[in-house]
Design goal:
The structure is a single chain. By secondary structure, this protein is of the alpha/beta class. It has three domains: 235 residues, P-loop containing nucleotide triphosphate hydrolases (Rossmann fold), CATH 3.40.50.300; 170 residues, Rossmann fold (3-Layer(aba) Sandwich), CATH 3.40.50; 74 residues, no CATH class. It is 32% helix and 26% strand. It has 17 helices and 24 strands. The strands form six sheets. Strands 6-9-10-3-11-12 form a six-stranded mixed sheet, with helices on both faces. Strands 18-21-22-15-23-24 form a six-stranded mixed sheet, sandwiched between helices. Strand 19 and strand 20 form a beta hairpin.
């Protein structure tokens, strides 16, 4: 019997113009939590997609418990006990959790779908692993945290023993991340083996026992996690020392760029207001962060400011220009750049190339058009410059279709487009979501450069280190209201957490600051 639950030996996988995996060997033991670490586009997800049968390698072999196997598709992978939670969930949005979980392995009775036994088994699994899910709720109505629990239950329902988690915490709140870590510990205790892909070094040090580091498709090294520091791991990953906390000059607040008064925004599907009579000012030369536990109105606040949802009351002023009733294009063309929360839904047209996505907000401007027609040569040249400046890893340059890129590199396309539009105000929602430490360092430097140029940044982030490291001022949102105004140099994680949980609140008048 092999000491390894699975082995991938000398795996090479190529795409047009790029070698995603170059002669990679990976060996995982039973009950390992084995981390894969690397920059965006280093080949981590590709390697796991080979193991899961979504890709076929050009060369190499896979062994399960010492036996050579051929994994031609995800059905084969499931048959060998391999399950995967993908970076972007594979769920049918108008199906319930229960329907999604049994999809492909349905049980029938006299030719009819029988969900009774499936429900019993899933209730037992949710209780055993503390994975709280409403089995009858449509996926489209779920938080991302609950959607992820559905994906995990899909693996457990199929009784998979090898579980792959690809960027599992990229869209989770700190509280949901902690719940996931406890679930993983429970899975390992029951004999499961875990492959854990993440850019978050704290999580890898917390949960993993071994780690392989990839860089540009090749193995840099494999190490035991015990005794490793974040600095050592980040240097292995990027190939240079990383400044995990950016240097930040003292804030020099200028004029008010955006003034919000009494803003009210409704909830989804006509539910009660999610944003309730909030007021604040954003100044030139400052990074103002709205912090809070996910689901407390931050998303709806951004929708109201950007025009993605109509406001129920109040005003949004840029100077004397009240845009509270203006459409999205008006706001984007005159005042706002926006890095959205959902990069697939609101940030990219996935079947467009990089250069087409780069000009989504500016295709009608003279810089990339002539006599009403897009000048593809100019647009392509501009996109190539952004690819170079923002280190966007892509196989075919500006003509690369964004759907085939890694999540972190998709995010870089959006960040480059929105920062380089030079709007007076940038609304940045989770701007470094899914990015590696090197990319995070670079993006933080770009946001601080914007600040030095006298532009205003409204940052919405669930990453508390990001909030504390680059913000000048923090407004805490709880149940649709601002409950506190804090300054990073005068507070700490504990106090910020109390405000976020609603355990502490001030009489707040944000517009007066």
């Amino acid at each position: 019997m092999s000491e390894y639950v699975f082995e991938m030996k000398n795996i090479t996988k190529k795409f047009p113009g790029i070698t995603a995996n170059d002669d990679i060997t990976l060996q995982v033991r039973k009950q390992d939590v084995y981390a894969l670490l690397g920059e965006n586009g280093a080949g981590k997800s590709t390697l796991m997609n080979v193991l899961f049968g979504l890709y076929q390698p050009e060369s190499g072999e896979i062994l399960i418990n010492g036996e050579h196997v051929k994994i031609r598709n995800p059905g084969d992978a499931n048959a060998y006990g391999i399950g995967m939670v993908h970076q972007h969930f594979k769920l049918v949005h108008n199906f319930t959790a229960l329907q999604n979980i049994v999809l492909g392995v349905e049980t029938t009775k006299r030719g009819m779908l029988d969900l009774g036994k499936a429900r019993e088994k899933l209730i037992e699994l949710t209780n055993r692993y503390q994975l709280k899910v409403d089995l009858d709720m449509p996926v489209e109505d779920m938080t991302v945290g609950m959607q992820q629990r559905v994906e995990i239950l899909k693996m457990l329902y199929r009784e998979n023993d090898i579980l792959i988690f690809d960027e599992p915490t990229a869209v989770l709140t700190p509280q949901e991340t902690e719940e996931l870590m406890k679930s993983i510990e429970g899975l390992v205790a029951e004999g499961k083996s875990i492959v854990f892909i993440s850019h978050k070094l704290n999580e890898i040090i917390r949960i993993a026992n071994r780690c392989t580091v990839l860089r540009r498709g090749k193995v840099v090294g494999a190490v035991d996690i015990e005794g490793m520091t974040k600095e050592q791991l980040s240097e292995m990953m990027v190939g240079r020392k990383i400044m995990l906390k950016p240097e930040k000059a003292d804030v020099k607040r200028g004029e008010v760029l955006m003034s919000v008064r009494g803003l009210t925004v409704g909830g989804a599907k006509g539910h009660e207001n999610s944003v309730k009579d909030v007021s604040f000012d954003l100044h030139a030369g400052e990074i103002l962060c709205v912090a809070g536990i996910d689901g407390n109105g931050q998303t709806e606040l951004v929708y109201g400011l950007t025009g993605l949802r109509g406001v129920g009351g109040g005003s949004i002023l840029f100077g004397n220009d009240d845009v509270s009733g203006a459409d999205i294009r008006y706001r984007n063309a005159r005042h706002i750049s926006h890095i959205p929360e959902d990069r697939h839904k609101h940030g990219l047209v996935l079947d467009y190339s990089i250069y087409e996505n780069m000009i989504l907000q500016t295709y009608f401007e003279k810089t990339v058009s002539h006599n009403g027609l897009i000048d593809n040569r100019k647009a392509f040249k501009y996109a190539e410059e952004m690819i170079e400046r923002y280190d966007i890893r892509c196989a075919q340059g500006a003509g690369t279709v964004t759907r085939g890129m890694s999540g972190g590199n998709q995010q870089k396309v959006i960040v480059a487009r929105e920062i380089e539009r030079h709007s007076s105000v940038l609304i940045a929602v989770q701007p470094t979501r899914g990015m590696d430490v090197g990319a995070i360092e670079f993006i933080h430097k770009q946001l601080l450069r914007m600040r030095e140029e006298g532009r205003g940044i409204l940052l919405i982030s669930l990453e508390l280190e990001e909030v504390m490291n680059i913000s000048d001022r923090i407004l805490v949102m709880y149940e649709g209201e601002f409950v506190g105004e804090l300054y990073p140099d005068k507070t700490n994680f504990q106090e910020l957490g109390l405000y976020m949980a609603g355990a502490k609140r001030d009489v707040f008048a944000g517009g007066a600051h």
